[in-house]
Structure formats: structure tokens, C-alpha cells
Design brief:
The chain is of the alpha/beta class. The chain has 14 helices and 16 strands. The structure holds nicotinamide-adenine-dinucleotide (NAD). It catalyses: UDP-alpha-D-glucuronate + H(+) = UDP-alpha-D-xylose + CO2.
Length: about 450
């Protein structure tokens, strides 16, 4: 495990490695510049007031000391009465000045300002899998509320680019580590997301996927029990398997094949739910369980082989849009900000049994392919491939429990969410060039 928060004694190291970061992220930095120049006020999903947008120069002869002076100088412009820090020691002395904002870096050239909460209001919140698609958006929400966020991630499918805008914020810590290893920390809440979510990635090493869901969940529950933290598990609609009940309600027990290619994920999550239940009843741990239905949005892994990312990437490149089977199977898709709001409402409410979080708007896969093709004005043809094993025929959440218990329902329409996702992948393609989407078989995440 490598704690790499710049907030503690590692601060000097974090600053002196900036040169390396700049080279590692040069293409992504270009992407950020394009985003920043195009949109003016946004990085990822975090909107920054214009007054805080101060860009660091891209200059390969920029030395570490110069970088320190530049960062301190830009920040101190906001604090007209503070003296600017020219040395490392002065920077440490004036730490208070940075207490609620990041130091701009070449990889994230915007000072990320967050609200100042009193130490009583500010919670220490751990997100396992926080460098992934959903976890990084959740981190944005919790950081923007002024909490301290600790991310634990093994970077199997997570990407540093999803979180690098927080790397130099004093309330943010990254632990590169695996949930299958026990960890000792003091936290108030744990959002336990760590687990690859796309079929090609969770099938790449099924035994590891099972360990992540079982040993990993056991470890996180042990931590929650020791420190008295609330814990939320991101379970999945996959626990309903190929459902014989439509739409799916939380009291449906599911129709899961225990021996198929998807079972490492489906059964792993089912056991994880059972563990949550056992710790709640035997050890009084305060648990929350979200059963998440298909979710999409910016920061999805471009090679995760999921419906939305594949269709958008294929359409934008005018490559064949590949559907498995006749495309008559149905799916419902929710936009990521709705999911993050639902997870937050669940954690902060009192309801301790499983809750579906999804958008009930249902599409056939073929309809969805046509919608994306039209929205991207693509010349792609739609190509039918062989149906994959155990692919569910119908999937649609009944969300009446979430409405009743959490006062939650999705706000973003599928088309609105798709428009944002298409723009995101357009930027990714601009910065990376060609992307060949992952097919149906097991595969290692490719960056
Ligand atoms: N996105 C969806 O449509 C969806 C649907 C249902 C459930 N979920 C659940 O939501 C959670 C997040 O999904 P996502 O879409 O962001 O997936 P993702 O693959 O983008 O994120 C998962 C993160 O967990 C990390 N991780 C994986 N194994 C780990 C381990 N052993 N130790 C530490 N970190 C590990 C990965 O590196 C990655 O950062 C997952 O638990 C998933 O099962 C997602």
C-alpha cells in the first residue's frame, strides 16, 4: 500500500514528483486544456467558478522549485493580504491558506475550492473503488460538500485521470491497495464500490472477482465494525440474474446461474449482500445496500465493453455498432449523477435493507443503438453478433421503494445523459486517437 496524499509528510515528495506526472499525463493534460478552453468552467463533472481558474504554464523546462513558486503564487493572488510562499518552509507555514483548495498542478491546472466545514461537520469518508467510473463521481460530490475523502483502489479498472483534479487537495487521500488485504483506518463512512463492473473485466480473472466481493467485503465490514462506521455496498441488478419477474422489485430473489460466465460477479455480489445482512444482525453494523441498474456517463472506461460506451465509441468512429443477438433484450439506463444522488441519499437515510437504484425508462438494445447512431449523426451500420451466454432478456427496476424511503428518483433523461456522454467520448477520442471497443469475451482493461 502506498499512501500518496499530499496532505501529510509526503507533501514534499508529491511536489517533487510533479515533473514525472507532467510527462505521464501529457496527452490527458492536452485533453484537459481542450475541455477547459471549450467549456470554460468545467473539469470532469465539477464546475469551477471562473475566478478560480488559474492555469499553470506547460513548459518542459519548468523546475520543481519554479513549480512550487508558481503554485503558491497563483493561490496567493486570491489572498491579497497573505504573503506568497517562495520556499518549501513558507508553504508549510501557510498551510492554513490551502485548507480548502487544491494547489494547481500541470495535470490539473485549476484550484479546486471546496466548502470549509467545522471539524464536527466534516466526515472522513472512504470510497473503495473510488478511482473508477462511479466512485470518482461520488468523490466529487463528497469533496464538494467539504468532507475528507480517502480512496482505496487497486487500479484494475480505475484510472488516475478520474481523480487527478483532487490529488493536491488537503482533504483528499489516495491509497493504492486492494480490498482483499485488511486495512486499519479511522473513518466515519465507507462506500464500498471496489469490484470491476463490466462483464469482460470481471470475467478476466473470475477467482479474483469472487475474492474481491467476498474477502474484500468481509474486510470492509470488519473495518466498519471496529471503528463504528456506516457502510454502503454497491450491489447490482445482476443479483436478479435473468429475471422471471418484470419489473424487478427488491423482494424478488432472482434467477441466477451459479455456474455460468457471469456467476463470479452475480454470486459474489449475492454473498456480499448476505455478509452485510449477517454483520448487521450479529454485530449491529449500520449497513446500506444499493442494487444498481445499468449506469452510464463520462469517465466510463472506454474499453469496458458495456452497451453505452461501445455504441458511442463505435458510432463516433463510424465503425459497425455491434449488438449481441437480435437486440430485442431490454435494458434501462440511468445517468451517473442520479446514481450518485441515490447513493448519497441511501447513506444519509435510515433505511437498512436493499434498495433498487435505476432509471425505469426501458429500451430494447436495438432501439438504443439507433438512438445513439442518430444522436452522433453516425454512418455506422448495425451489426448483429451471436448472443452471449446468460445475457438477461429483460431488465427494468421497480423504484417505488427508493421513492418512498429515500425520496429519490432519476432526474436526468436518458437523452440528456447521452448527450453529455457523447461529448465526453468525443474528447477522449480527440486525445487518444482510435479506440477499438472490447468484444464480448473476458479481457484485461486496456487504456
Ligand atoms: N456502472 C454500473 O452500471 C453498475 C451497475 C451495477 C453495479 N455497479 C457496481 O458499482 C460499483 C462501481 O462500478 P463502476 O461502474 O464504477 O466500475 P469500475 O470498474 O469503473 O470501478 C471499480 C473500481 O474498483 C477498483 N477495484 C476493483 N477491484 C478492486 C480491488 N480488489 N481492490 C481495490 N479496488 C478494486 C477498480 O480499479 C475501479 O477503480 C461496482 O461495485 C459495481 O459492481 C455498477
Amino acid at each position: 500500500m502506498t499512501p500518496s496524499s499530499p496532505t501529510h509528510s509526503t507533501k514534499k515528495t508529491a511536489i517533487t514528483t510533479l515533473g514525472e506526472d507532467r510527462h505521464m499525463h501529457s496527452s490527458y493534460s492536452q485533453f484537459r486544456w481542450i475541455c477547459a478552453l471549450g467549456m470554460g468552467i468545467a473539469i470532469g463533472n465539477v464546475v469551477i467558478p471562473m475566478s478560480y481558474m488559474e492555469f499553470a504554464p506547460h513548459n518542459n523546462t519548468f523546475t520543481h522549485n519554479q513549480h512550487m513558486r508558481y503554485s503558491a503564487g497563483t493561490v496567493s493572488d486570491k489572498y491579497k493580504n497573505s504573503k506568497s510562499a517562495n520556499t518549501w518552509e513558507e508553504l508549510v507555514e501557510q498551510k492554513q491558506m490551502f485548507a480548502s483548495q487544491s494547489i494547481p498542478t500541470p495535470a490539473a491546472p485549476v484550484a479546486m475550492e471546496t466548502p470549509k466545514l467545522s471539524s464536527k461537520e466534516r466526515k472522513k469518508i472512504m470510497i473503495t473503488g473510488g478511482a473508477g467510473f462511479v466512485g470518482s463521481h461520488l468523490a466529487d460530490k463528497l469533496m464538494m460538500e467539504g468532507h475528507e475523502v480517502i480512496i482505496l483502489d487497486n487500479f484494475f479498472t480505475g484510472q488516475k485521470t478520474n481523480i487527478d483534479h483532487w490529488m493536491s487537495h488537503p482533504h483528499f487521500s489516495l491509497i493504492v491497495g486492494d480490498v482483499v488485504d485488511p486495512i486499519h483506518l479511522e473513518v466515519d463512512e465507507i462506500y464500498h464500490l471496489a469490484c470491476p463492473a463490466s462483464p469482460p473485466h470481471y470475467q478476466f480473472n473470475p477467482v479474483k472477482t469472487i475474492k474481491t466481493s467476498t474477502e474484500g467485503t468481509m474486510n470492509m465490514l470488519g473495518l466498519a465494525k471496529r471503528v463504528g462506521a456506516k457502510i454502503l455496498l454497491t450491489s447490482t441488478s445482476e443479483i436478479y440474474g435473468d429475471p422471471q419477474v418484470h419489473p424487478q422489485k427488491e423482494d424478488y430473489w432472482g434467477n441466477v446461474n451459479p455456474m455460468g460466465p457471469r456467476s463470479c460477479y452475480d454470486e459474489g455480489k449475492r454473498v456480499a449482500e448476505t455478509m452485510m445482512y449477517a454483520y448487521k444482525h450479529s454485530n449491529n453494523v449500520d449497513v446500506r445496500i444499493a442494487r444498481i441498474f445499468n449506469t452510464f456517463g463520462p469517465r466510463m472506461h472506454p474499453n469496458d465493453g458495456r452497451v453505452v460506451s461501445n455504441f458511442v465509441i463505435q458510432s463516433l468512429q463510424n465503425k459497425p455498432i455491434t449488438i449481441y443477438g437480435e437486440g430485442e433484450q431490454t435494458r434501462s439506463f440511468q445517468y451517473v449523477s442520479d446514481l450518485v444522488d441515490g447513493l448519497h441519499a441511501l447513506m444519509n437515510g435510515k433505511y437498512g435493507a436493499p434498495v433498487n437504484l435505476g432509471n425505469p425508462q426501458e429500451f430494447t438494445v436495438a432501439e438504443f443503438a439507433t438512438t445513439i447512431k442518430e444522436m452522433t449523426a453516425s454512418k455506422s451500420e448495425i451489426k448483429k453478433l451471436e448472443k452471449t451466454a446468460d445475457d438477461p432478456n429483460k431488465r427494468k427496476p421497480d423504484i417505488s421503494l427508493a421513492k418512498q424511503e429515500l425520496n429519490w428518483e432519476p432526474k436526468v433523461s436518458v437523452k440528456e445523459g447521452l448527450a453529455k456522454t457523447i461529448e465526453y467520448f468525443r474528447m477522449v477520442l480527440l486525445s487518444t486517437g482510435e479506440i477499438i471497443p472490447t468484444g464480448p469475451g473476458a479481457s484485461k482493461p486496456q487504456n
